[in-house]
Design a protein that fits this description.
18 helices; single chain
Length: 493
């Protein structure tokens, strides 16, 4: 609520002091003022239930406040907490709990208050709003009519004002990710925010509409100096050896900015990095600078091999030749070629899926990232599906009921009502996509055996294992590891 009202929560002690001096109130964010508490944030969220941390905060307040008002979630705790505060050196305190269950003073009914007095005695009593000349109010009397929304606040335009990310809450193992069969210690960074394109499957279309009335830029950039300083700081603190830039379109920048980045990054950082960008942004000029600055991999959103679906349904006006030229430029400059592909698109047929496979073969992509299509709320394509009766909301509720916070595009079920295809074919092709892309067409009947097998018998499992092992070796020239009877790969990107 405070954030929605525009209150900056993460203020340093000196800044809070200024707030108190000027307006008489200041908000002290626990992780800033009590660094030990930040380590409890993630476990508390994961537990999803009350823990002792609900009452430890006020008791471990590093400010050492001699006079304080504290709320507790249980009426039985008001007196014990008041006595504990006295033992901790507090001179005077009120520990409160309202009879409607809140840890605040309310106007709805009686409030239980345990008052710690100077000398250590505790007096417990009840107080109602009417005792102070304020009319008692029931919740139903305070409900409003229509919902009035605040005006949308503009995005922060100066990204340099943001603090560096704090990665200290993550375990060491969280930094390691695979690249071409090897594990590296990664760091995640950004040079910009806000994608200006209007692809029908992307939530950015909705975000653009929401923030357009503010009149401010949707796409914003950090200064090159800030980006370099942030990387230097992370390298010093966490010993990172590989970078990923998470900009939705990394090359969405001026020629001069890219040249400035390339020169400074090459001279002062030099670490290998990977990016995501558009096929249109890959030119002889940009590819050359990517190579110079040690870019090792570029991911392009191919989405589908059918240009009619890409241009029409997805609102992504890019022809196949543009992708072919872009991937060729990446290959000529020694940059790994990664494609993003969506399967299970509305109106898609099985032949369209194989057109996507064919485009990856034609572009000679090194890695094929596969996502099963999901129409996110707020996207134009979802509105179209609802209007045409192609969105299976019952199937969606079933999927969401078991949602475990992994991406919905990794689900093996669909919420689309297909007209010309059974979705089961998508679930069979998805795990075989890289094999179809990599293997000679003359050997596709071996892959088809797996795709068409209904019972998934021992022979099929063995064949699938061997095919995957060969595909992995063909991609990365590294043998897969063996454990017992199964063969598996240790990284595909």
């Amino acid at each position: 609520m405070l954030e929605a009202a525009g209150v900056t929560l993460e203020l340093e002690p000196e800044q809070v002091a200024i707030c108190i001096e000027k307006v008489g109130i200041g908000f002290m964010f626990a992780p800033i003022f009590h660094p030990a508490m930040k380590h409890a944030i993630v476990p508390r969220r994961e537990l999803k239930q009350r823990t002792i941390f609900n009452i430890l905060g006020p008791l471990t307040n590093p400010a050492g406040a001699a006079h304080q008002l504290t709320g507790v979630y249980d009426a039985e705790l008001t007196e014990p907490i008041a006595y504990v505060l006295g033992e901790l050196g507090c001179k005077s305190a009120m520990v409160i709990h309202s009879h409607d269950g809140l840890d605040e003073l309310t106007t709805i009914g009686p409030n239980r208050i345990s008052h710690l007095r100077p000398g250590g005695t505790v007096h417990t009593f009840e107080l109602e709003a009417k005792d102070l000349g304020i009319e008692n109010k029931q919740p139903e009397s305070m409900t409003g009519g229509s919902i009035e929304k605040n005006l949308v606040r503009p995005y922060e335009q100066n990204l340099d004002t943001f603090p560096y990310p704090d990665w200290s809450i993550y375990p060491e193992t969280a930094f390691y990710k695979p690249f071409k069969g090897h594990a590296y210690k990664y760091g995640d960074f950004e040079m910009s925010r806000g994608c200006p394109y209007k692809c029908s499957y992307c939530i950015n279309v909705q975000l653009q509409a929401i923030y357009k009335p503010t009149g401010e830029n949707f796409h914003r950039e950090k200064s090159i100096k800030r980006v370099i300083d942030e990387i230097k700081s992370a390298r010093e603190k966490y010993d990172i050896e590989f970078l990923k830039f998470w900009d939705e379109t990394f090359l969405l920048m001026s020629k001069e900015r890219l040249e400035e980045f390339t020169d400074i990054y090459s001279e002062q950082i030099g670490l290998p990095y990977v990016i995501e960008t558009t096929s249109q942004s890959i030119t002889p000029f940009t590819a050359k600078l990517l190579k110079k600055s040690n870019c090792k991999s570029a991911s392009l959103g191919l989405e589908t091999g059918n240009p009619d679906i890409r241009n029409g349904l997805l609102h992504k006006p890019t022809d196949n030749d543009t992708y072919i030229k872009a991937f060729k430029l990446l290959e000529e400059n020694g940059i790994q070629k990664v494609s993003f592909n969506m399967l299970g698109l509305p109106f898609e047929k099985e032949e369209d899926v194989f057109k996507t496979i064919a485009m990856n073969r034609l572009c000679k992509t090194d890695v094929q990232a596969i996502g099963n299509f999901y129409p996110y709320k707020g996207t134009p394509i979802r509105r179209m599906l609802k209007e045409e009766g192609l969105l299976n909301e019952e199937a969606e509720r079933e999927i969401l009921s078991g949602y475990d916070f992994t991406t919905l595009t990794a689900n093996d079920k669909s919420v689309i009502r297909f007209k010309d295809m059974n979705y089961n074919i998508i679930s069979k092709i998805t795990p075989l996509f890289a094999n179809y892309t990599t293997w000679p067409v003359i050997l596709w009947p071996l892959i088809d055996l797996i795709k068409n097998e209904e019972n998934n018998g021992e022979f099929t499992k063995l064949l699938c294992s061997k095919i995957n092992a060969i595909t992995y070796f063909k991609k990365f020239k590294i043998p897969t590891h063996r454990t017992g009877k199964s063969t598996y790969a240790i990284g595909h990107c």
